[in-house]
Design brief:
single chain; mainly beta; four-stranded antiparallel beta sheet; 8% helix; binds cobalt (II) ion; globular; 3 domains; Nuclear Transport Factor 2, Chain: A
Length: 653
């Protein structure tokens, strides 16, 4: 059956994007769905996990001349609930035709937001679930919350080929109360998401619901502190950035953004204008996957290891930032044009926040002999979005600095995942009476398509070595940096090593700075960890990317996601471990660098009831990319020399 959409392919569709990498407009999203519906047998039983820009070939974008346009295309993933089959489509918006239609066997697309609420309703309507609640003395279904999770893949034959969710259940203490504080431990409904039927209810016995309500909402806080005076950020002349479509310019930085339901924010064509020349640094940069393996082996907990991109989609779960106070100052917001699971356009207003922040001191020197001080304020450009994935919040932040530094930071907050304490809490921490916050880790894989002054780049590992004591080092003080070329994919699978002050350096061997050094950027690890899951564990097979902190691959447009395109319910082996088996050469070629960082989380009582933000990420710093500090032309903040006398206004603050 073919359903004609309310949005027929419109001849009035404006296909004149500012740039081929501009995300699809709401009209283009609607047109893509309508074209697919009109040309393929897409009935009401189809869902649309993904409708995004089909990015044009990189070579075409890089060779684009002013005034030229490229064919405009959309990429769609479709799930037929009636058959459980998945399809990928490419729709030409330029010709209003489906140009590619492919059946993708034996995969499960990500779980869509609509499925979460439909799944909860199905569970709460099931008599066996109601009976299981009654056994626990729970009668008021309005206080019960059913939180659907991806089921994973643990080799159970009866779970193959069925689109499944395994839900975690909670009980609010009062209407509108916190529920993550009160798990109904040991009660796990399993739902077929294609038919929205409960296929089983795992009942591991009655465990009392923890008593502490753990409320955090303003209405529950009776004694807020009273000694905070207003702190206002004002920019009377407006911000220093300019925005045209999704093209952003600030100081010497120049880049574009996109937004996908899976990855959220994507950076494109990041470059730095250096003495009149726009120098490319990154062609595309985005989070490619993240996974949160939990460390409790008990039957109700061992499956917990969410892939928040491939199983859920952090873009789809992005917050609308107008509702909160997420950014301070002069804010520019970008909306995200997504779809609901039925292919209707769904706009997340204010999904991406762009603003400037004062960041302390950029550089300073005092010549005490002259009694002269030179100091510059540092300012950074912040572009971010925040996703709520069930209990957890993730803020994904890019920072651009005036000295050429780029920083990526994940802000982790929200509510810990807990179980009720039925026995010894060896694999967690008691955070409230009878409430056990499970040990876990958060692993993030960043895909960084470097193009430093061109596409042909190389990657080096740099270790600092101590010179042995001897005739050339008689006092034992000498140390030096040892750079080693990583020539192929297998050689480039590396771990951090703080004992060697290890970092990795991407260079363009064909372009030198004024000192004859190849221009480069280094990847400086920050907060990181190794996984504690066993090498033979299902989760390590499914998220093999987390076994190495560095991976390097030669550019391939189809290699976007570190754990493969469809990790939901997948047995594993896909993505980086599989691609790099070929051990392709990566020297002086178009390289993609994948950096994994892990945030290790043994919970604390102070993480309860809502976790104060934890920070994790890494830094990209120019190393020989410039001839000297590129920040010397930043003017002083104050008009007058000397210090900040009262009454002086700042013109560059
Ligand atoms: Co955590």
């Amino acid at each position: 059956m073919t359903t004609l959409s309310e949005h027929p392919p419109s001849s009035a569709l404006s296909l004149n994007p500012l740039h081929p990498l501009e995300p699809l407009t709401p009209e283009e999203v609607a047109a893509a769905v309508a074209i697919a519906r009109s040309q393929k047998a897409i009935g009401d039983q189809f869902r649309f996990p993904c409708v995004v820009l089909h990015e044009p070939p990189k070579a075409d974008v890089l060779s684009l001349q002013p005034g030229e346009t490229l064919p405009r295309e959309a990429f769609l993933i479709l799930l037929d609930n009636a058959t459980g089959q998945t399809y990928e489509a490419i729709v030409s918006l330029t010709t209003s035709k489906v140009t590619s239609w492919q059946h993708i066997p034996a995969v499960q697309p990500n779980i869509m937001a609509d499925e979460l609420s439909e799944c909860e309703a199905a569970v709460k309507a099931h008599p066996k679930f109601v009976a299981a609640l009654a056994k626990r003395g729970i009668a008021d279904l309005d206080l019960v919350v059913v939180d659907p999770w991806a089921i994973g893949n643990f080799g159970f034959a009866d779970e193959v080929g069925i689109r499944l969710s395994r839900a975690i259940c909670y009980l609010r203490a009062v209407k509108g109360g916190n529920f993550y504080s009160r798990p109904i431990d040991g009660l796990v409904p399993v739902v077929d998401l294609n038919t929205m039927t409960v296929i089983r209810i795992e009942d591991m016995g009655v465990v009392p619901v923890p008593p502490d309500p753990g409320e955090y909402a303003t209405r529950f806080v009776t004694q807020p502190r009273t000694d905070i005076k207003p702190l206002q950020i004002t920019q009377p002349e407006g911000p220093s950035f300019t925005v045209e479509g999704h093209h952003i310019r600030w100081q010497n930085w120049d880049f574009r953004i996109g937004f996908t339901p899976r990855e959220g924010l994507v950076l494109y064509t990041v470059g730095y204008e250096d003495q009149g020349t726009l120098r490319p640094i990154l062609y595309r940069a985005a989070l490619s996957e993240m996974v949160v393996p939990y460390g409790d082996p008990r039957p109700q907990h061992f499956r917990k290891n969410a892939f928040d991109l491939g199983e859920h989609g952090v873009g789809m779960l992005a917050n609308s930032l107008k509702l909160g106070c997420d950014c301070l100052g002069e804010i520019y917001y970008f909306d995200a044009a997504l779809t609901d699971s039925r292919g209707n356009v769904s706009i997340t207003e204010n999904a991406v926040c762009l603003h400037e922040e004062d960041y302390g001191i950029l550089w300073k020197h005092t010549d005490w002999r002259l009694d002269e001080v030179e100091v510059r304020r540092s300012r950074r450009l912040v572009i971010s979005f925040i996703a709520t994935v069930d209990n957890y919040e993730y803020g994904f932040f890019w920072y651009f600095y005036q000295d050429g530094t780029i920083q990526y930071e994940v802000k982790l907050t929200g509510i810990l995942l807990c179980g009720a304490l039925a026995d010894n809490p060896k694999y967690g921490t008691l955070v409230a009476p009878d409430l056990n916050a499970l040990n876990h880790q958060h692993f993030f894989s960043m895909r960084l398509d470097f193009d430093l002054d061109g596409t042909a780049n190389s990657v080096y590992e740099v270790n600092t070595e101590a010179e042995p004591m001897g005739p050339d080092n008689p006092y034992g003080n000498a140390f030096f940096a040892q750079s080693t070329l990583l020539p192929s994919e297998k050689a480039a699978q590396r771990l951090i090593d703080p004992f060697k002050a290890r970092y990795w350096k991407v260079v363009n061997p064909s372009v030198q700075n004024r000192l004859g050094q190849p221009v480069g950027y280094k990847i400086i690890p920050g907060d990181n960890a190794v996984p504690y899951a066993h090498p033979d564990s299902p989760i390590l097979k499914r998220a093999g990317f987390m076994t190495k902190h560095l991976w390097v691959t030669p550019y391939d447009a189809s290699e976007l996601y570190a754990a493969g395109a469809y990790p939901n319910q997948h047995p594993g082996g896909e993505g980086l471990p599989k691609w790099t088996e070929r051990d392709r050469p990566i020297d002086n070629t178009d390289v993609v660098v994948w950096y994994t960082f892990g945030h290790h989380h043994i919970p604390r009582p102070e993480d309860w009831p809502v976790m104060p933000t934890a920070y994790s990420g890494f830094v990209l710093k120019p190393v020989g990319f410039f001839n000297a500090s590129p920040a010397m032309d930043v003017p002083p903040s104050m008009k007058a020399q000397g210090c900040c006398h009262e009454g002086e206004s700042s013109n560059n603050q």
